[in-house]
Amino acid sequence: MNDLLQFAVIGFSTGAVYAVLGSSLVSLYVATGVINFAQGSVALWAVWQTAGLRTNGVLVLPVGSVQLGSGPMDVWPAVLIGAASGLVWSLLAHLLVFRPLRRAPELGQVVASVGVMLFIQALVPLRFNAGTLGTEPSSLIPLPTLTSEVFTLGGTTIAVSNLILAAAAITVALALAGYFRFTRMGIATRAGAEDEQALRLMGYSPDRLAAFMWGATGFASGLIVILAAPAIGGLDPTSYMLYVVPALAVALVGRLTSIGVACGAGLALGSVQQILLFLTAKSWWPSWAQAGVGDAIPFLIVVVALFLLGRGIPERGARDVGAQAPVRVPRLRPLWTAALVAGTAVAIVLTTGQWRFSLVMSIILTLIAASVVLLTGFLGQISLTTMAFAGAAGFALSKLTTNVGVPFPLSMLLSALTATALGIVVGVPALRIRGAQLAVATIAAALAIESFVFNNPAMTPYTGNLIADPSLFGFSLAVRQGTDLITLRFSFMVLVIVAVLLIAMTRLLSGATGRAFLAVRSNERAAAAAGVNVPAVKLLGFALASFLAGVGGCLIGYSRGQLSAASFTVLVGLAVLATTYVGDITRISGAILAGVAGPLGLLYLVFTQTIDLGHYYTLVVAAAMLLRVVVFAPHRDAVPEWLLVRRARRAPAQPPATAAHARESADVR
């Protein structure tokens, strides 16, 4: 019992991060209606900024740097400046990204949030390097612990720093809750969640109120992560970004309205994870559950919370949502299709070595991106688990070909069906939720699968996940032969499989199934009233998308001969989503562009080999994603707020039921 208490208190350090990030997510949702996936990335920058100041007094900016003083900065000034950098990043995200998208559909806001998340994460290693800091990142001075004092309680040694972090998280939560409950600005912010037009008539600016909350949550998130960093991860370049997943889980436990519940759930989650870490070291604990159990808990929390509370999570009352991007029903054009396939085949023949390999990878990524087009572009289900489905099929292929000896192509079919079954399971929450809430559930599922399956040595051993070469009727289709990096026969096999599946997908989407998909995407209630079985259509969409992604994962496995979890991480999946959205997430041609621009595809090879800018690849993709969704999106809010206020004050009073229609008419004029 003493050990359990000790590990529960140790978990307060991580729990405090979850609590503050979760409280910040709730506050932002109340103030703006945005679920901010980039909250952890803001804190990531704050941690590195503080470490740079503590090392040599360098204030690192997105472009350039400033030397503050002649040497290392004292602890608390560095901590406060680091937290202030989180405030600045949050304000920039509000002004440049989310403010123009306040009337955007949820897909646009989710994609923008993921773009900010990837942009900051990619910028950190580029800016905090030896050239900027004057020293290698590994030589940065670690952040100091709050205190090293301990005391004994009932025979259990308790670290005071963990209690301080828990108290700090509770203080932040109380401050945010008190702001909304007791201050005029906070009450006005809550009122704006119900009716922004009435708020403008009262003389308040929703944008300014939102900006205040963006800045406050950015500062609070940066501060608590800086204080907790020595205990939870030091200067890890990615983990803080993914802390947003458990934070989203605890925010949903609070129904995206209760800051106190989110804070308490965050502290409890951190303690539970540490207790599980302690229990996994016991001899009686099953070997298959010794890794990734703690990371799977947020997904379970998300699913339970959304099923129990999903219908009770409120929508913003006056959120005037713009039209979704139009979808063009695909048509199979035999001549154009044949010309594209023939041109790709010629390119395969004319290329060799790394160029042919990247071309084949682009073809495979086209199939994986097509699964995103089908599920998100046509069906409207925002899923971030694409690469998890691909990875599940790839690792299943390893087991089937090496342990069971299942021959090709049956091995690939069974592996893709394994991914299909997983896709149906992940798609079950979509029967009750949709939009940004579904995105939360799917990113939690992706992280759980990555941690509990891909990085679990009991399921995918570190010694390697070999995949036997494919062969058909005794004819080898192996990817390598002698010194040839990638053979023509393997390349043509990939081209044929992908072409057949894309043609089948085109025929499917151009028929009754595609019409059912578009009906559900447009309006689920209207589709149900028209006789569409909405739950069945949603599960069918998840099944088909996971099957396509699963086949793509198998082809990736065959192209490598041996798989690792690094090929199917959450970050890779987000990069695929980004390139698909940039290409056009509503068209199959967008999937082709995404394949060319995807990780390890042709554009990636150009960045790494031709212009030697491979380390800028993720940054460029994230920037293109933000540019696409903010500048070129048709739902961009181009009407300035002062004009909206002027129109609102001139308009006669109207019943609440028609106020939104009046606002829409004013915007159209």
From TrEMBL:
Pfam families: BPD_transp_2 (PF02653). The chain crosses the membrane at residues 6-30, 42-63, 75-98, 110-130, 150-180, 209-232, 287-309, 335-353, 359-380, 412-431, 438-456, 486-505, 539-558, 565-582, 588-607, 614-633. This is ABC transporter permease. Its main location: membrane. One of its GO terms (biological process) is amino acid transport. One of its GO terms (cellular component) is plasma membrane. It is found in: Cell membrane. It is a multi-pass membrane protein. GO terms for molecular function: branched-chain amino acid transmembrane transporter activity. Belongs to the binding-protein-dependent transport system permease family. LivHM subfamily. Keywords: Amino-acid transport, Cell membrane, Membrane, Transmembrane, Transmembrane helix, Transport.
